Amino acid sequence: MSSHEDWASVFRTSTDYEADLVRDRLDDSGIPAVVLTQRDHAFNLTVGDLASVHVMVPPEQADKAVSLLEEQLTDEELEAAALGADPDAPPANTPDQDSKLDSGHEHMDLGPPEDDPPEDDPPEDDAEDAADDASA
Predict the structure, then answer these.
(1) Helix, strand, coil % (nearest 5) of the chain?
(2) What is the 8-class DSSP label of residue 10?
(3) Fewest CB atoms within 10 Å of the CB: 10, 17, 23, 120?
(4) What is the pLDDT of residues 27-73, one digit of tens each?
(5) CA–CA separation, 72 and 69 (whole Å)
(6) Cα→Cα distances 114→14, 107, 118, 120, 122, Å
(7) Residues 33/62, Cβ–Cβ less than 8 Å
(8) Cα 89 vs. chain centroid, distance in angstroms?
């Protein structure tokens, strides 16, 4: 079971980039967040149900996250933050960490499913179909 299954959606958009910005804002404020993208990237859809991207947080942090996202920063606050940023600062994550940020890699099992029969033994239905075909 994924540790993110019961998390609450606090932001929905149709672009991965916007969701990443919101996730970073929450993370910077100490609220753990992940991006759940349901976008159909094969067709690059950006509208409708096939373009849904959610920012998810633990349920006990949902109210705090929504409050934070509803805060309006003044132009002066935004300018001060932008001018105070260090363009030469090292990246927050290594490339390997970045690639795994929202992948759920810690929950992936890339091995064969446990309930599949060994490849040498055809499933029973296929064996019966093969016998029927041979007798026809």
Answers:
(1) 45, 10, 45
(2) E
(3) 120
(4) 888 999 998 887 666 666 656 666 788 899 999 999 999 999 998 88
(5) 8
(6) 36, 16, 10, 15, 16
(7) no
(8) 26
What is the tens place of the pLDDT at every residue in 72-122?
A: 888 998 888 888 888 888 877 777 777 666 555 555 555 666 665 556 655
| Residue whose pair of structure tokens reads 């940023």 in the numeric block | 85
Q: Is 16 exposed, middle or buried (0-12, 13-18, 19+ CB in 10 A)?
A: middle
Cα–Cα–Cα angle for 38, 108, 17, nearest 5°?
Answer: 35
* Residue entry with tokens 């091995």: 111
